[in-house]
TrEMBL record:
Transferase keyword on record: no
Residue ranges of coiled coil: 39-69
Pfam families according to UniProt: ParB_N (PF02195), RepB (PF07506)
Superkingdom as given in the UniProt entry: Bacteria
ParB-like N-terminal domain location: 70-162
Organism (species): Siccirubricoccus soli
Keywords: Coiled coil
Chain segments carrying region Disordered: 1-33
InterPro entries: Chromosome_partition/occlusion, ParB/RepB/Spo0J, ParB/Sulfiredoxin_sf, ParB_N, Plasmid_partition_RepB, Plasmid_RepB, RepB_N
Record protein name field: Plasmid partitioning protein RepB
Family: Belongs to the ParB family.
């Protein structure tokens, strides 16, 4: 009976109704879904990798633009191919620099370029003394790395020297001679040293006349100045002058003296070998220039323009004095302009 009753009940209920489809989860329910630990860790790793990739891209862009300041092992950095300073680490100022970096760190970064001939190495445009100080202290050097041509490197080198600690006359002369020997044109030399043509001629004339060993023996002599270095350049040409200078440079008292004192000792010794020549006699005043009076005095030569001179002549001559002196010095130093 039970079986018959069950069949009857099924027939009375009709066809079986299909089960309703499961409800789709709402967005809120999806948002509340908690991922497993492995999935969450993978998401964090991907985010970190993306951030590191973006950081690396920014760093690479900054390096290309010369904006990033990096810490570089001093052992991987080579000096500039163009010598400028005669003594970079033998003066009291360098010792003060080392002490300052040791106490407060390196505040101003140096400028490097990727070494053109050695992969993985760098070359200094400027900052040789800070590089030496970092190497001495055993710490990385803070540097900006920028791709530079040879010309851009020496111009940056010269500009930094002029703005931070200017070179002495002989250091500038040696720097100019180094650049000329490397084949740089005069325009690059003028830009690197911010020098006009007549001054560049003097630099090169002095650098050619005085042997490098004598320059190094004397040192930068910052107080000597252009006229005295030019006098020394003339004095070394006398017969036997270099032998006298070499003997002097070997003396312990000479080596112990400051650079400016060493310069004075050499110049005085060479003037004994070749006394200064007497000044040439002034040419006679040409006919028609009777309105200019010339007289020799103990302290020099006096030119006087008389009242009988044509109107405006005095102003005209004064306006030409600088040009005439520059032309005279250029001709005297070798005729280059």
């Amino acid at each position: 009976m039970k079986r018959k009753q069950l069949l009857k009940d099924l027939l009375a209920a009709g066809p079986a109704a299909e089960a309703p489809p499961p409800e789709s989860p709402t967005p809120e329910a999806v948002g509340r879904r908690i991922p497993s630990g492995a999935v969450r860790a993978m998401g964090l790793d991907l985010s970190r990798l993306q951030e590191e990739a973006r950081r690396a891209e920014r760093l690479e862009q900054e390096m290309r633009n010369g904006q990033a300041v990096l810490e570089i092992d001093p052992a991987s950095v080579d000096p500039s191919f163009a010598e400028d300073r005669i003594a970079r680490t033998s003066d009291a100022e360098y010792r003060r620099l080392v002490e300052s970096i040791a106490a407060a760190g390196q505040q101003v970064p140096i400028l490097l370029r990727p070494h053109p001939d050695s992969a993985g190495r760098y070359q200094v445009a400027y900052g040789h003394r800070r590089l030496a100080a970092a190497a001495e202290l055993g710490i990385p050097v803070r540097a900006i790395i920028r791709p530079l041509t040879d010309a851009e490197l020496v111009i940056a080198q010269g500009k930094e020297n002029a703005e931070r600690r200017n070179l002495s006359f002989i250091e500038r002369a040696i720097f100019a001679a180094e650049l000329e020997a490397k084949g740089f044109d005069r325009a690059t030399l003028h830009a690197a040293l911010a020098a006009h043509p007549a001054e560049m001629t003097r630099y090169l004339a002095v650098a050619r006349a005085i042997p490098r060993w004598l320059v190094r023996a004397i040192g930068p002599a910052p107080r000597a100045g252009r006229p005295r270095w030019m006098a020394l350049a003339e004095a070394v040409s006398a017969q036997g002058a270099l032998e006298v200078a070499a003997r002097l440079a070997e003396q312990p008292d000479f080596r112990a003296a400051p650079s400016d004192a060493r310069f004075g000792l050499v110049l005085a010794a060479l003037r004994q070998v070749a006394p200064e020549p007497a000044a040439p006699a002034l040419p006679a005043v040409p006919q028609g220039l009777s309105f200019i009076h010339i007289e020799e005095l103990e302290e020099g030569t006096r030119f006087t323009i008389l009242n009988s001179a044509p109107s405006g002549l005095a102003a005209f001559l004064l306006g030409r004095l600088v040009e005439l002196v520059g032309e005279f010095e250029a001709r005297r130093d070798g005729g280059e302009g």
